[in-house]
Amino acid sequence: MLAASGGNLVRRVLYAFARVPYQSLPLDNSSPAGVRGTDHNLLRPALADLAYANKSPFEKLDLYLPAERAKPAPLVIWFHGGGFVVGDKASMPRKQFGPPPKPRGRMGPYQIQVPDVAALIAKGCAVASVNYRLGIWFPLAAPNGLRDAKAAVRFLRANALKYGLDPARFAVWGNSAGGYMAAMLGVTGDQPTPYDDASLGNPGVSTSVQAVVVWFGAEDRLPPRLQIAHYIPTAKVLPPFMIANGDADPVISAAQARRLQNALSNAGAKSTLTIIPGAGHEDPAFMATQMAPTLAFLEKSLGP
């Protein structure tokens, strides 16, 4: 893994000369103004840039809290996409998107699709948006990204009382590479993996989650230890999953989403799959058609 500064230099070169996804987003958590400065209607986190580990400047999260909390709040943890190459936690609270760019190829550029943070907070949920270590290629960068994802869950659960969170009601949600991370957390929460790194803090704290939302993230062209399906047969508990994918997605195909759905269903998990006709990768159809069903799924899975 490249050091943060060296990795950023490589990503800037990719931005300039390659058709990488998420080109309109900042590279990492060192430059959030790239997104926040363009939208004056953004929600601001109650707590910004919380360090959940100390190996990398990427290991920070933003926490959005409901205004009124008579009891500990359920938590929705969001992981941004970007193929483990680009992306930033600051992209999540945007409201005004404008027309999406026209992709020049399978690598975009795309208009990232994000949760409705205001709606989640209004329902009494807390929301965390997580940065994690990036790299120059998905298979090389994913292991550290997954270690960071687990570290973030451990940190939030270990500090649940401090932040007014319910440690028994954690959901994960992500798009593209973030959706892959959410799925990996869902299937590995109760079993040891190469991605449970005690040196990142809070060893022994559970990384289990109680609901999983995967938007176009069913990547299954990876080495075995990075495969979502690799961990399903040995999982003692599988949380409910909600999977959505476009049937015109050139990056994560509908067939990949169906394979994940079948693997979960065959293992006895409660999982639903929605295939959106004509939708591509990071398609505006997700926010237009899947937001309400996703919020309903989270409310049902986590409780009021």
Task: Please give a structural write-up.
The structure is a single chain. This protein is an alpha/beta fold. About 30% of the residues lie in helices and about 15% in strands. It has a single domain (about 5-300), classed as Rossmann fold. It has helices at about 5-15, 35, 115-120, 140-160, 160-165, 175-190, 230, 255-265, 285-290, 290-300; strands spanning about 45-50, 60-65, 75-80, 125-130, 165-175, 210-215, 240-245, 270-275. Strands 1-2-4-3-5-6-7-8 form an 8-stranded mixed sheet, sandwiched between helices. The protein is globular.
Short description:
The chain is an alpha/beta fold and 304 residues long. It has 10 helices and 8 strands. It has one domain: Alpha/Beta hydrolase fold, catalytic domain (Rossmann fold), CATH 3.40.50.
Number of helices: 10
Query: Structural class of the secondary structure composition?
Result: alpha/beta
CATH class: Alpha Beta
- How are helices and strands ordered from N to C? HHEEEHEHHEHEHEHEHH
Number of strands: 8
Strand order of the largest sheet: 1-2-4-3-5-6-7-8
CATH-assigned fold name: Rossmann fold
Total domains, how many? 1
CATH superfamily: Alpha/Beta hydrolase fold, catalytic domain
| Rough outline | globular
Compute the gyration radius: what is it?
Answer: 17 Å
Give the helix proportion (percent range).
25-40%
- Report the major sheet: 8 strands, mixed
Mean pLDDT: 87
